[in-house]
Amino acid sequence: MAEPHYDWAGFGFDTRQVHAGEAPEPGHGSRITPIHLANAFRFESFDQTHGRFAGTDEGQLYSRHLNPTNEVAERRIASLEGGTGAVVVGSGTAAISSVLIALLESGDRFVSTASIYSGTQILFDRALKRLGITVDYVWDPTDEAEWAAAIHPDTKAIFTETIPNPKNDIVDIGFVAGIAARHGVPLVVDNTVATPYLIRPLEHGASFVVHSSTKFLGGHGAGLSGVIIDGGTFDWRATDRRYPLLTDPQAPGVPSFLDRLGTEQAFESYLRLTVVNDIGPALSPFNGFLLQQGIETLSLRMERHLDNARTVALWLAEQPEVESVDFAGLPGHPAEALAERLYGGRTGSVFAFTVAGGLEGARVFIDRLQVFSRMTNIGDVRSMAIHPGTTTHLSFSDEKRGRLGIAPGLIRLSVGIETVDDLITDLANGLRAVRDAGLVPESLSLTGGNR
Ligand SMILES: Cc1ncc(COP(=O)(O)O)c(C=O)c1O
């Protein structure tokens, strides 16, 4: 693989989001990474061709597993998350399935926190189940006994998210990493909503990080993508659990990935060459380019997202038409202390609130919005609102929705980077419409502010 132009290790986050992983373009001196739409690359000789296939000559071969445009995004994200390497794929869902298929095979189990993104639950409960991989859910991630009961001898991974949505029920990654370490299981953390600007799960003991870079990393709402980052620290041989595709020779006389590349590099190479290459969730280099364009401004956008979200959450909590606000950074929230410790009270910009009037209140509110877009997706510059009960969580049973706290009046917001006063005016118009429709009970009107 191409060497980076400079080694950007040790530079600040803002410098690395612009420069880390960039490679020189000697042909024309293009300052930004060109879009290499090539499917495949020419070899200089018969021997080089063989070397590329044998893995003795590093370099481009075929874009299903490595592409020069995408490689810059991989290096940049690995740098921001503090990993040893990264692999980009076509979506966040592809990133999650790829890392789990790398760790698990038919007959294996893994444990996940229960409040993860609804689409990821559907992946676990439908597609992975069909492959013979079983998920066990933990409902209270602070309960060590529940974790211990969920981890079986054939459990080979733990999965969680830093800031789950819609409920903003933040997870203490260091605590979960401690449990994973005690059981000798790698911890995979979806850091989509927090981004490495807010938290770097590898620093808290996670083994791998995944992103739907469709969201905040890209930031523009143009182009799906996903990424898996390897922390390079999981000790594959120090655990009783077996990962033979990584630790054992796959053909007589051929050293295993681990023996050839060591703990720091083995997983990235294994994932790239024998999972992503075999299954084929490749990222279009065009989307890889868009992803890089987005990452360059991540810290600036996040600052605005975080400030706007906190302002909106505090304002919503004072409104008489609002029954409750699910934002962990709010004063009085049960997770306030954790929110303060991990995030300085700024727990991302995707959270929920419950409007008076239940389903009808939600309908009236959402139909009145103008600046907030009625749409799924989170984490682009635009503010968005959706009613989880009739959309993202529609396929869940009433019982499961109830257990997850998805009330009929619950609305999810992804707060964008627009002028915050305009966002509040838009929300105020929606709440006034709920009141005008006679959906706010007298008791709520009198309390004048609800947390
Ligand atoms: C936290 C989280 N992870 C993963 C995904 C899946 O990402 P994608 O839509 O890029 O497949 C999403 C999508 O909303 C998400 O919110």
UniProtKB/TrEMBL annotation:
One GO term of the biological process aspect: transsulfuration
Entry's family note: Belongs to the trans-sulfuration enzymes family.
Enzyme Commission number, as recorded: 4.4.1.2
Cofactor section: pyridoxal 5'-phosphate
Any GO MF annotation of the entry: homocysteine desulfhydrase activity
Top EC group: lyase
Protein's name according to its UniProt entry: homocysteine desulfhydrase
UniProt key word Transferase: yes
Cellular component annotations (GO), alphabetically ordered: cytoplasm
Keywords on record: Aminotransferase, Pyridoxal phosphate, Transferase
Gene3D superfamilies xref list: Aspartate Aminotransferase, domain 1, Type I PLP-dependent aspartate aminotransferase-like (Major domain)
Highest taxon of source: Bacteria
Xref: PANTHER family: HOMOCYSTEINE/CYSTEINE SYNTHASE (PTHR43797), HOMOCYSTEINE_CYSTEINE SYNTHASE (PTHR43797:SF2)
Catalytic activity, as annotated: L-methionine + H2O = methanethiol + 2-oxobutanoate + NH4(+); L-homocysteine + H2O = 2-oxobutanoate + hydrogen sulfide + NH4(+) + H(+)
InterPro entries documented for this protein: Cys/Met-Metab_PyrdxlP-dep_enz (IPR000277), OAc-hSer/O-AcSer_sulfhydrylase (IPR006235), PyrdxlP-dep_Trfase (IPR015424), PyrdxlP-dep_Trfase_major (IPR015421), PyrdxlP-dep_Trfase_small (IPR015422)
Cross-referenced SUPFAM superfamilies: PLP-dependent transferases
Sites of N6-(pyridoxal phosphate)lysine modification: K215
Organism field: Herbiconiux oxytropis
